[in-house]
Write a structure and sequence with these properties.
By secondary structure, the protein is an all-beta fold. The chain contains no helices and 11 strands.
Length: 120
């Protein structure tokens, strides 16, 4: 059974930091690009950060560059999103997404999301 379970969300003051985790199971984690998306109320889901299968390359939305860091531990099947200097506009539900490569190409999985609330 495929699972992506996010954790680490919560309430933080503006300027604060949070680290989200996404634990994967039920598929070959190391063959999947991992991405973090977020969706605020009334807005479309947007890509926040992405990391390649071995973690050698990352990419970020302009709005989070220099503040967020995506990383992964293929031994533990976990992807992280370190967030600092949080602002009210970062408040959203954050989703973990896995996108298959190589023989897993075409498969994609989503987590249930974790809420991040930023107080001003």
């Amino acid at each position: 059974q495929v699972q992506l379970v996010e954790s680490g969300g919560g309430l933080v003051q503006s300027g604060g930091s949070l680290t989200l985790s996404c634990a994967a199971s039920g598929f070959t984690f190391s063959r999947y690009f991992m991405k973090w998306y977020r969706q605020a109320p009334g807005k479309e889901r947007e890509l926040v950060a992405a990391i390649t299968t071995a973690g050698g390359s990352t990419d970020y939305a302009d709005s989070v560059k220099g503040r967020f860091t995506i990383s992964r531990d293929n031994a533990k099947n976990i992807v992280y999103l370190q967030m600092r200097s949080l602002a009210p506009e970062d408040a959203a539900v954050y989703y973990c997404n896995a996108v298959g490569t190589f023989d897993e190409y075409g498969r994609t999985y989503w987590g249930q999301g974790t809420q991040v609330t930023v107080s001003s």
